[in-house]
Write a structure and sequence with these properties.
Layout lengths: L4 E8 L3 H12 L4 E5 L14 E2 L10 H11 L6 E2 L5 H14 L2 H29 L5 E2 L3 E5 L2 H6 L1 H9 L5 E3 L2 H7 L9 E5 L3 E3 L2 H14 L3 E4 L2 E7 L2 E6 L4 E9 L5 H7 L7 E10 L9 E4 L4 E6 L2 E10 L9 H13 L9 E9 L6 E4 L6 E5 L5 H17 L16
Parallel strand pairs: 1-2, 1-13, 2-10, 4-17, 6-15, 13-20
Antiparallel strand pairs: 3-9, 5-9, 6-8, 7-8, 11-12, 12-13, 14-17, 14-18, 15-16, 16-17, 19-20
Helix pairs in contact: 1-8, 1-11, 4-11
Length: 417
């Protein structure tokens, strides 16, 4: 009979949120074991755009997004698509997404996201210093680009909301101003917005591995295996791996990203977590002289400068975890990128698809399970997992050590729906 292994705090998920939580728990004096089905950073944290997007406080279901949906959904390779076969399954999530776009919900979401982002910026700076990886952060800001003055004007409500949250930005209203920030842009772009608080990590996979290594040096352990069962035991929380190995933990953090929903359901929490399948192509280093991340909001993708190359990706495909990838979406973004940056060299790229764990209101789930305060959820960050990872880790550590949370967690409650 396989002997049960005892753990202090088990963190299910070795992505950026899980390793940040491990680091923060170690700082709080706890012993930590990270459990991941593939290994550290091998899922969504491996191939994201690498932006620390502290300015992104608007929910996806804003009025501007809802107006664009019919046009976007009509294009199978556009910024947002839903495979027809998946539509029945996702309809309840879409109804919640629509409700999240109502003015009262948008206002509440921005307020909650704003407080989380302020904590995220402070805690990421603290984590980076403590882990000794300041060299992996590049404070270059981000440039959002518009193809018409009307497009810039349509974005003004969102910028006003950011102003109320204390987020600084500067509108650039001529191609000459844009050229100073990023030479080589297509003349189709006539305006832009520069956000200085946005930062870039050198590479999201390397960044995740570096934090995990800093945690390992402080005593964290790694178990490669998939947790398939979770439940309460008289002396803690019982876990079972897919290979039959039983584990027992005093406390547990579920930070498994898009794979967290099934474990939450075993604990009685029906969380409306969906899977956004994001695509990208990473071109070799030197494919373009990119000064900072560029955002093409009306097209739903970004171009990011990384040590591993130039990454072109984004868009949203709501298709769950099981459907095969459709890399024609990555091809479409690469073709657009060549149009937007005429000198971009598009040879030698590597394609990738990852799974973003997304909630209808664009707010993550951070809080205790219905069954026990010793089981904490930390998932559902959508496009903002890297950005909010250190803040989430801080909040998880506070919850598991009995300290008052740094922010009001009620908007992020697992039971809010």
């Amino acid at each position: 009979m396989t002997q049960t292994r005892d753990i202090d705090v088990a963190i299910i998920g070795g992505g950026i949120v899980g390793v940040a939580a491990a680091f923060k728990l170690l700082e709080a004096g706890r012993s930590v074991t990270v459990i991941d089905r593939k290994g550290i950073g091998e899922e969504t944290s491996r191939g994201n755009a690498g932006g620390l997007a502290f300015s992104e406080v608007l929910p996806l279901a804003s009025s501007g997004m809802l107006r664009k949906l019919p046009k976007w959904l009509s294009d199978p390779l556009g910024p947002l698509t839903i495979p027809p076969a998946y539509l029945p399954q996702i309809t309840p999530w879409l109804l919640r997404f629509w409700r999240a776009g109502w003015p009262d919900k948008v206002k509440a979401s921005i307020a909650a996201q704003g407080q989380l982002m302020r904590l995220a910026q402070a805690e990421m700076a603290s984590l980076v210093r403590a882990a000794g990886i300041e060299h992996m952060i590049h404070p270059n800001g981000v440039l959002e680009l518009y193809e018409s003055v009307a497009e810039l004007k349509a974005s003004e409500a969102g910028w006003a909301a950011r102003t109320r949250e204390g987020i600084a930005f500067a509108h650039l209203r001529s191609p000459s101003e844009l050229a100073i920030m990023q030479p080589g842009l297509s003349p189709r772009f006539v305006a832009g917005t520069f956000i200085p608080s946005w930062q870039q990590v050198s590479d999201p996979y390397d960044f995740t591995l570096a934090i995990a290594e800093a945690a390992r040096q402080r005593g964290a352990q790694l178990v490669v295996g998939e947790v398939t069962r979770i439940g309460l035991a008289t002396d803690g929380v019982s876990l079972q791996l897919a290979n039959g190995q039983p584990l027992r933990a005093r406390q547990v953090v579920i930070a498994g990203g898009a794979w967290s929903k099934a474990l939450a359901a075993q604990l009685g929490d029906s969380v409306p977590l969906e899977t956004e399948r994001g695509y990208n192509t990473t071109l070799p280093p030197g494919s373009f002289d990119l000064k900072r991340q560029l955002t093409f909001g009306s097209h739903g993708f970004v171009i990011s400068p990384l040590t591993s190359g130039i990454r072109i990706g984004g868009a949203v495909e709501l298709g769950g975890l099981e459907l095969p990838p459709n890399f024609a979406r990555a091809d479409a973004m690469l073709q657009k990128a060549k149009t937007f940056l005429p000198d971009l060299r598009t040879e030698g790229g590597k394609q990738w698809m990852g799974f973003r764990p997304s909630m209808p209101d664009s707010l993550p789930v951070i809080g205790a399970s219905r069954r026990s305060p010793d089981i904490i959820y930390a998932f559902g960050h959508g496009h903002l997992g890297l950005t909010q990872s250190a803040a989430t880790g801080k909040l998880v550590a506070e919850l598991l050590t009995g300290r008052p949370p740094s922010i009001d967690l009620s908007p992020l409650s697992p039971q809010r729906f």
